[in-house]
Amino acid sequence: MKMIIQRVVLIIIVCCVVVGIKMLPKQARPKMPENKEESVYSVKSQKLVKTSLQEYISLNGNIQSNNTISVYPDIAGKVKSVMVTLGSNVKRGQMIATIDPSVPGSVYAESPVYAPISGKITSLPLTTGTSVSTSSAIAQIGTVNGLQIKAQVNERDVVVLKNGLEADISLVAITGETFKAHVNKVSPIVDETSRTKEIYLLFDTEDSRINAGMYAKIKLYTTLHENAIVIPYDSVVFVDGKSCVYVVEGENAKLKTIELGVIVDGQAVVESGLEEGDELITTGVSALDDGVKVHVVGGK
């Protein structure tokens, strides 16, 4: 019983001390020790300067003769013989095939088919023995003095198409090299089935290694954003649905809301919110909060 009374007295004394301290003016209260140590975060940064960002479209295409003519027989019948092969060079007036127009009971006579222009055989759709009419193409001949690249552009990108756009061409058959080309012709319509528009590009210089029928990869350069603030897209964080970045101000990280423009290959145009000369934090942003201390350990 005596021990219980002692405990009650001790509790009453402690409560009185606490109440007494709270009733003292703030200046007279005993100061509690404070943890003055503050975390410092290591980051990398870069000074922003105005630069350019080039948009482009990646396409696939096929190389074909700049001018191609289909060759038709003068009379219906069966293909008797073909004197050329795919890729053969022919001269204007050269015989390339013969047609047997005879029917049972008629006089036999072969009808020759001549090349209307000089060039290269780019297509031989029919074989010996095939029945043909005057609207059946025996062959296609492409001119030898120029090649073009045919490609289809998705409907979402057609608004930027125009003659003169530059492109880099890569060929599966010629590795390690790119060839310069430019848009020469843009179709005036969008195909309703494929939802694409055809474009034709010409090589800036001729190269004897390039042949009709080759497969081409096209990097078509479209809009160039000049004199722009461009940042790594990885440096962007999203706060309450807004695009933000951290910049270095003194020894602290400051959160800034920005408006993003186009993004190309991991680089983004900033429409507003940053200026030339700002020190953008590029690495270590995931651990930051607005106002924390930072230590810049190196540029980007």
Q: Give the beta-strand count.
A: 22
Which strand order does the major sheet show? 2-11-14-13-12-15
What assembly state would you assign to the polypeptide chains in this entry? single chain
Q: Helical content, roughly?
A: under 10%
Instruction: Tell me the major beta sheet.
Output: 6 strands, antiparallel, barrel
**Sheet/helix structural class:** mainly beta
Radius of gyration: 39 Å
Mean pLDDT equals 86
Name the shape in a single word: elongated
Instruction: Give helix and strand order, one letter per element, not per position.
Output: HEEEEEEEEEEEEEEEEEEEEEE
Question: So how many helices?
Answer: 1
pLDDT below 50 for ≥5 consecutive residues: which ranges?
none
First-last Cα distance = 74 Å
Percent range for β-strand residues: over 45%
Overview of this protein structure:
The chain starts with a helix and ends with a strand. Strand 16 and strand 17 form a beta hairpin. It is mainly β. The model has no long low-confidence stretch (mean pLDDT 86). The strands form 5 sheets. It has a 6-stranded antiparallel beta barrel with strand order 2-11-14-13-12-15. The chain has 1 helix and 22 strands. The chain is elongated and about 140 Å long. The longest helix is centred in the N-terminal third of the chain and has 22 residues.
